[in-house]
Amino acid sequence: MQFHLNGFRPGDPDLHPETPQDARPLDVLIVGAGPAGLTLAAYLSGFPGISTAIIERKDGPMEKGQADGVSCRSMEMFQTFGFAERVMREAYWVNEATFWKPDPAAPDRIVRTGRVQDVEDGLSEMPHVILNQARVHDMYLDVMRNAPTRLEPLYGRYVKHLAVEEDCVAVTLDHEGREDTMRARYVVGCDGARSVVRDAIGRKLVGQAAHQAWGVMDLLLNTDFPDIRFKSLIQSATEGTVLVIPREGGYLVRLYVELDALNPDERVSNRNVQVTDLIAAANRILAPFTIDVQEVAWWSVYEIGQRLTDKFDDVPETEDRPPRVFIAGDACHTHSPKAGQGMNVSMGDAFNLGWKLVSVLGGRADPSLLKSYSRERQAVAKALIDFDEEWARLMSAPPGSQTQSELQHYFAEHGRYTAGLSVRYDPSDMVLHGDAQHLARGFDIGMRFHSAPVIRLADARPLQIGHVQKADARWLLLAFAPAGTPTAQRDALAQLCAALSADGGLLDTITPDGADIDAVLDVRAVLQCRHTEIAITDMPPLLFPQKGRLGLRDYEKVFCPDERAGDIFEMRGIDRINGCMVLVRPDQYVAGVLPLEDVANLKGFLTNILTAPTMDQIA
Fold it and tell me: How many C-beta atoms surround the C-beta of residue 109 within 10 A?
């Protein structure tokens, strides 16, 4: 974390100086303060040049219940906002999962039949954790309150009408019985499965119900079931299935309890299920073990169904224009909660859209960039629906069936998916075409940047290279030095830096006059030598730049392999002879791998996306 760039300021460095917001027109109106809405609001709150408002139908922030699974990929995203460490400290870490089935010798009793590692080694530097959705909300709200804009949700407001006008989107709100109209350049509907914004732009959730009901409970209990602090899947012979999810704090546990199948025209609300019914069902499934519930923190019942919207913006298929209204999260896709993907994919939607809105509103990119949001995220949601259908089918399979026996294998086989790390964006204007993947085989083009340990040259600090990226809409260019002496490696990087910094070159084209050299593209480098073999002061100016109003040097641009934790060149399959460039999008996805000398292709790709804003435009 860097601060004091523009002068010493005492106090909490997370509390940014407030930038008064003038009365100019609203840029972005976010509807809904759930995971998607708060992710987007937290992202936009860091840009004083962007006017943002977020409204929520409820009267205040969430306190308990709903989602709880936080994937490795979401943890990587939290790192860019600065609160991953807080989540790790509070959360339950999912290390192993256990499986229980009927005892063949006594089918009325369950026995443990398997145990698997939850996340394979080396998949991410971040763990898979469990934390109440309300606490995730709290951390986003803290980011917003500490941001220059001091953004706070406006509670108790809901949308009655939305209309796309010539130069804005007009939204009619109800607040305590009074109507009000807000106008914004862009509106983002994060308002759930019954989204008013989605309906207003003519989109529909399409899909089918599985006619299967489940109950969910957050409990404080005593039990003789030995795996109550493991993620556990228990399938009984005749009474159904229970999924155990240990919760944060050491005592709380969540149980998902399978209920009887619904008739084709039946809703779970017609059954008048009570929490005592769920507890009794759980005890029947867990036999011979029992649970003695001391307190019910929260409970609910729900029906399994998978539904998807065909497009995530307001542009009809017959038109070719930049979108003005977007939908994200449950407004676009709904599914069962047991695979722990809903909150994570919803936050991923907003993270994808956030940097694109910043780029357009800050004058960094043409509004046509916003077309890519629906294309990229609709494909992700379709994969989620397909996964959830199969997962729900396996969990509800009859005991002893071939399908039921596939469950443990399916869980292990799809660990990368449930960790949130299997998303791949196809080649497009946002993902570079090319044949240089062999230069960095461990940084898959179109997939999330897989961090690795390094040592910072200037101070020998060990860290994760991926953690240099923040939620600030900047692109990251990592230059991996080719083989040679430390001086030869430095010279190769200097040649690259000179090409990037030349008059009329890439940085000259995309960086506004008067801005720091890394305001749009953050260039960093990784040497192959030890940090003791060369000094930071030997680096070219682009890798040892002067920044801010005081012209202070940035000492954090160059790294070396961390031989104790693992050599990044070996871990990520980087060509040691030739080195390479790895371009990472602001949402942490690899946009391309290029040879060190291929600056022309890099420039062509980025200047097709980015423009050169003036200083009064840049957000």
Answer: 15
Residues 173, 184: Cα–Cα separation, whole Å: 13
Q: Full-prediction pTM beyond 0.85?
A: yes
Give the angle subtended at the CA of 310 by the CAs of 306 and 314, to the nearest 5°: 130
The answer to whether 604 touches 446, Cβ cutoff 8 Å, is: no
Higher pLDDT, 66 or 196: 196
616 burial class (0-12, 13-18, 19+ CB within 10 angstroms)?
exposed
Cα separation, 142 vs 1, whole angstroms: 17
1: tokens are 């974390």
The 8-class DSSP code of residue 356 comes to H
Alpha-carbon distances of 23 from 27, 53, 54, 328, 380, rounded to whole Å? 11, 13, 16, 28, 38
Rounded Cα gap, residues 386 and 395, in angstroms: 15
User: Are the CB atoms for 150 and 54 separated by under 8 Å?
Assistant: no
Instruction: Check: CB of residue 164 under 8 Å from CB of residue 314.
Output: yes
Query: What are the phi and psi torsion angles at 532 (to 5°)?
Result: -85, -5
For residue 549, pLDDT beyond 80: yes
Q: Give me 604's structure tokens.
A: 């062509």
Answer yes or no: are the C-beta atoms of 472 and 351 closer than 8 Å: no
What token pair was written down for 179?
């109507």
